[in-house]
Amino acid sequence: MWDVLSYDFTENISDKKLKKNILKNTESGSIIVFHDNKKSEKILQKNLEEILKTLLKRGFKFGTI
Q1: Which of 1, 8, 16, 33 suits 49 as a labelling partner, its CA being 20 to 30 A distant?
Q2: Which residues of 41-60 are buried (b: 16+ CB within 10 A; e: fewer)?
Q3: Domains in the chain: boundaries
């Protein structure tokens, strides 16, 4: 079961709020939910790379389930 919801589908979520929500709540073993749809496409294009780089710098590794 996932434990970090990105809220990337929320129409008016700011870049700052998206990043803060993910980076603050991710811990070892976390499963982060990102969505692949038109509502989330724009905000993820702008922020996903930075989020992933930050998590990598913190020592996280990624996989898919």
Answers
A1: 1
A2: eebbeebbeebeeebeeeee
A3: 4-57
